[in-house]
Amino acid sequence: MRISLASLSEESQTFDLEAPAAAIGERLETGEDAALRVREPVRARIEAYRAGDDVVVAGAVETTFVGVCARCAEAFDLPLKAPIQILLVPPGSVEQEDLDRGEGAVATLSGEEIDLTPLCFDQLLLAIPSRLLCDEACLGLCPWCGANRNSEHCDCRPPDTTASRRLASLAEQLSAHKRRG
Ligand SMILES: [Zn+2]
Ligand SMILES: [Zn+2]
């Protein structure tokens, strides 16, 4: 996902960039997101132009991950799109402190190309939700027989004991609390 500096002018140009799925897949396997796979290549549509000695890059990156639902354990498609925005400045024109504080929004130009691969991958990985759900309304698995409640009906009932009634009312309170957020 590289842009050649020589191809840039003061007029904004569009670049369609692509990285193979396997390249971001390597990042997933080593990261915290091992419950995810990626099936499609990573694609970015980027606008870039020169502004004096600087280069402005903006656009979006997208791919489709395959996640495993935390409730029903089924695999599901997770299409994600993340914004890309970065200002590239000549080396030495900005203090290192300012670069660090810019949290990746400012970087230094080096060489003949701009390699957007790390930035694109970072932005996509940041966009992954912390809890993977096939659907907000996923009913999950029956805790007694393991049936997937989204597609199967079972007749399991919680045993009607004082403890189970207290648990049920506690679960209700918790979800009401979450709804109030
Ligand atoms: Zn689910
Ligand atoms: Zn059941």
Radius of gyration: 23 Å
Number of β-strand runs: 8
Please give the count of helices. 4
The helix-strand sequence is EEHEEEEHEEHH
Task: Compute the number of structural domains.
Answer: 2
Helix/strand/pairing class, anyone? alpha+beta
N-end to C-end Cα span: 40 Å
Characterization of this structure:
The structure is a single chain. This protein is α+β, with helices and mostly antiparallel strands and 181 residues long. The protein has two domains: 2-127, no CATH class; 139-181, no CATH class. It contains four helices and eight strands; from the N terminus they run E-E-H-E-E-E-E-H-E-E-H-H. It has helices at 21-30, 96-101, 117-127, 162-180, and strands at 2-4, 13-19, 37-38, 42-51, 54-68, 75-89, 106-108, 113-115. Strands 2, 3, 4, 5, 6 and 7 form a six-stranded mixed sheet that branches. A two-stranded antiparallel sheet has the order 1-8. A hairpin with a 6-residue loop joins strand 5 (54-68) and strand 6. Bound molecules: zinc ion (2 copies). The site of one zinc ion (ZN) has 6 residues, from loops.
Relevant terms:
two-stranded antiparallel sheet, binds zinc ion, 2 domains, alpha+beta, six-stranded mixed sheet, 8 strands, 4 helices
Brief overview:
The protein has helices at 21-30, 96-101, 117-127, 162-180, and strands at 2-4, 13-19, 37-38, 42-51, 54-68, 75-89, 106-108, 113-115. By secondary structure, the protein is an alpha+beta fold.
